[in-house]
Amino acid sequence: MSDTEAIAEADVALPSVGVTLSKVDKVYRGGVRAVDGVDLDIEPGEFMVLVGPSGCGKSTLLRMIAGLEEVSGGEIHIGGADVTRDLPQQRDVAMVFQSYALYPRMSVQRNMEFGLRMRGTKRADRAEQATDVAKTLGLEHLLKRRPAALSGGQRQRVAMGRAIVRRPKVFLMDEPLSNLDAKLRVSMRAELSRLHKRLGVTTVYVTHDQIEAMTLGQRVAVLRDGVLQQCDTPANLFHKPVNLFVAAFIGSPSMNFVSATVASGKVRFADVEVDLPEGSPLATAERQVILGVRPTGLGVAGNGHPVIRAVPEIIEDLGDERHVVFPVAAPRVDTDATRAAVDAETADDVALLPDDHARFTVKLGIEVAVEVGEPIELAINPSRLYFFDPETGEALT
Amino acid sequence: MTTTAEKTVVAKPPKKRKERDFRIQSKYAPYARFGKYAALLLFLVFFLMPIYALIVTSLKDPSEVSVQRVWELPSTWSFASFEAVWPKLQDGLFNSVMLAVPASIISALLGAANGFVLSKWRFPGADFVFPLILFGMFIPYQSVLIPMTETMSFLGLKGGLDGLILVHIIYGLPLTTLIFRSYFSGISDEIIEAAEVDGAGMLRTFFHVALPVAPPAFAVAIIWQFTSAWNDFLFGAVLTTNKSYWPVTIALNNIAGGQSIPFNEAMASALIACLPTLLVYVLLGRFFMRGLMAGALKG
Questions:
Q1: CATH class of segment(s) B83-297
Q2: CA A234 – CA A385 distance, rounded (Å)
Q3: Superfamily grouping for domain A2-241
Q4: Domain locations in chain B as residue ranges
Q5: Would the pLDDT of A237 be above 90?
Q6: Which residues between 171 and 210 in chain B have a beta carbon less than 8 angstroms from any beta carbon of chain A?
Q7: What residues of chain B lie within 8 A of the CB of A87, using their CB?
Q8: What is the count of residue pairs from A and B with beta carbons less than 8 Å apart?
Q9: Hey, which residues 145-164 in chain A have their CB within 8 Å of chain B?
Q10: What's a single GO BP term from this record (chain B) (predicted)?
Q11: pLDDT, tens digit (0-9, with 9 covering 90-100), for B199-222
Q12: What ipTM goes with this model?
């Protein structure tokens, strides 16, 4: 503990800089628009996560910030300076690649020193700085080794160390944890958070894993088809999604959707009728909506909330909680937005079900007795309902 | 996998079981293996015949050498033939080393630079330039002989080794470019990008990151280049006017091309002349296969 504190004190606080993207476009030859008019203001010292399903343009955007990809339109500013046309080596950013991209013929130490060497730092200083960083990452005993002689986790840390040693203005990370096994990924996630807190360097982090995004990001930018959907704190993304896509993408298990009608202050779907929460803008409306319910928005009946009868179809026992999937007698919501969001999730059992009824997933504690096929009653919390326009997918708030 | 396979097989009738055994060890297997090795041995003998004749003849006493007794072992082992040809080959060998070493190393280095730029540091028009360079491989030596000699005399490089080296470097470029381009194509783009972000420009990325991973490609390129420069006769004969610059191939030709052909001397000099190439193969050969695979899989 005292060790960590000593290191924390030894670190010179770096002046953080912000990154501003204005109307950034990327159009590939052949007219494919990978990034479309993205405006993003990353605060100095902020941990910003870019998230979205594969092919949403998040990596392209990151590579444009790094200078590895040409910008087709718009401007990129780092610390106030326009770097849109600058080469990567002129931008003073460091990048951690998905494959780690370590230099195979150099020792760990030389890998970490490479950036300093290219910038003309003296040999002794280089060695000192590399050793310092290696210590904080627990790599000191590996300094003389070649990358081939390291485990995946160690290589990942070397890649991280190589970025840190440089003390760049901005860290850019392209799915740096995706090649690690699940356990190591969780511990590295914590380590990353800790590192960011200590170094305070502006970080842009790309991932397709929304849990990684939510746990790491101070703010998270959700992208779809190259268009920025919403950029907000993890809590706001979860509780106030601006559209169907964000709502479906964020949260695990995903939000449940069903077609419903709103009339005279009530929302109806299947045989269920729920009073709209007080002050709802839909109170006087009469229209079709897509109703969204989080798996935690349903609970055990008995607290006065309206009740839905559920016949469990699938029960996933996770030890400390259960995910219960049951059909709802209403058509499934199948829009481009929900499909795009669901594609990113690796295991979505709902998508594989045969008929076209909507499926709801509910998270229940293990104290609730459930059996497949045995009906149970679940309460719907009216204050935790989400409403979306079926045409545009925009949230109705 | 195997355990489940075994279980299912055990459950099946004995006939099936027999089939499974066949894969592991058939009762005909020893005969099949004998046949295979016999065939391989036959091929081996066939391919080694010339080398056998070469070595045996070169070690015979001149009086023993005759076409009828070409397959017989020498009754007395003699190094007389080697002693006889050595003075005639000495200068040629030296010239060929002075020619093939720089020609192969410089050509490989330039090819590495070309290959790097064509695969990892691409410029507009790279897809047009590469086929153009490759085209050089398909130009026959003979067709450029006259313009080449004229150019070399114009440059004042005709007659000596320097001109010959230059010609071999240029003639080797298409192939070395191809080798290195294929090899570098197989290297992850992210490593190059990492160097870029780390602050290295094109040259430093090439020297610090690309070259250190390229030894297999160098082995392939140098072996090819060394062999072709060493074995070249035509350019050597045309471009060197002075006897003192003749490469070993010309010396070899003079020994073998006399009125009465002393077989033993021809064989001994051929043996001496091919030793350096053999040495390069042995020294670089362990990279050779690796390099070829790296080139074959990608690009």
A1: mainly alpha
A2: 18
A3: P-loop containing nucleotide triphosphate hydrolases (3.40.50.300)
A4: 2-58, 83-297
A5: yes
A6: 188, 190-191, 193-201, 204, 208-209
A7: 196, 201
A8: 64
A9: 162
A10: transmembrane transport
A11: 999 999 999 999 988 888 999 899
A12: 0.83
